[in-house]
């Protein structure tokens, strides 16, 4: 689903933020991306969802080289990717329902289908009673849950989440991770960027990619992921 080959990224004329990144994520896999603040986790996610272009190297999504694709085809690819942003990126003039429904409306889904799916998903993330609330009236944790519901509503082929549990309480965090796992069981490839080691430890059955100072240092604990041919099991 996702493949990086010798990828580097720099902003302007500065030093490389990411250096010689090599890895691939198989279809239907689930991974954590860890590392300290400033390690490059968010930049790596931006490369995957095509918000940035690499300075060097090759990126392939769904088996296609993205550098060689025309702009209109890149737009089609983006629609197969669900994204949970750190800063939510909700539309303040839309209610919670309308924010979550947006990906389905873009796809041309019917109104009855939209209403059923959106209501069910808002209830799942604990916001069934705030469907008509506007983002400016909501807490950061509530906004985060709306953003998560919006990201998964269209059953994306790939789900990218940047610190998805950073603004919610531990109980809700576990519930959200369970939702991600259920989505994964249906075939979605999931990559969650987090610096919360307690979260990673709780779900130690999922493989971990670790970034340190822009370099991919460690991968484990499964054989389903490879980086420079060094995938290995870890305790």
CATH topology of the largest domain: Rossmann fold
The low-pLDDT segments are: 222-235
Distance between the termini: 27 Å
User: What pattern of helices and strands is seen along the backbone?
Assistant: EEEHEEHEHHHEHEHEE
Strand proportion, as a percent range, falls in 15-25%
Mean pLDDT across all residues, rounded?
A: 87
> How many domains?
2
Assign the CATH class of the largest domain.
Answer: Alpha Beta
Fourth-tier CATH superfamily name of the largest domain: P-loop containing nucleotide triphosphate hydrolases
- Strand order of the biggest β-sheet: 6-7-8-3-9-10
Largest sheet: 6 strands, mixed
- Number of strand segments: 10
The CATH architecture of the largest domain: 3-Layer(aba) Sandwich
Total number of helical segments?
Answer: 7
């Amino acid at each position: 689903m996702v493949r990086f080959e010798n990828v580097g990224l720099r902003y302007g004329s500065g030093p490389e933020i990411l250096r010689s990144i090599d890895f691939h994520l198989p279809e239907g896999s689930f991974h954590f991306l860890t590392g300290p603040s400033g390690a490059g986790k968010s930049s790596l996610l931006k490369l995957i969802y095509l918000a940035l272009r690499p300075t060097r190297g090759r990126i392939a999504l769904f088996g296609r080289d993205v550098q060689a694709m025309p702009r209109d085809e890149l737009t089609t690819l983006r629609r197969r990717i669900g994204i949970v942003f750190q800063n939510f990126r909700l539309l303040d003039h839309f209610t919670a329902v309308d924010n979550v429904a947006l990906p389905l409306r873009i796809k041309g889904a019917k109104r009855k289908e939209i209403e059923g799916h959106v209501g069910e998903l808002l209830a799942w993330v604990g916001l069934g009673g705030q469907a008509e609330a506007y983002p400016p009236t909501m807490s950061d944790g509530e906004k985060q849950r709306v953003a998560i519901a919006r990201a998964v509503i269209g059953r994306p082929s790939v789900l990218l989440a940047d610190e998805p549990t950073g603004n919610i309480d531990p109980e809700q965090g576990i519930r959200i991770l369970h939702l991600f796992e259920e989505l994964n069981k249906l075939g979605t490839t999931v990559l969650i960027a987090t610096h919360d080691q307690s979260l990673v430890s709780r779900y130690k059955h999922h493989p971990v990619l670790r970034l340190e100072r822009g370099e991919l240092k460690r991968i484990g604990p499964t054989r389903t992921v490879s980086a420079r041919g060094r995938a290995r099991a870890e305790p």
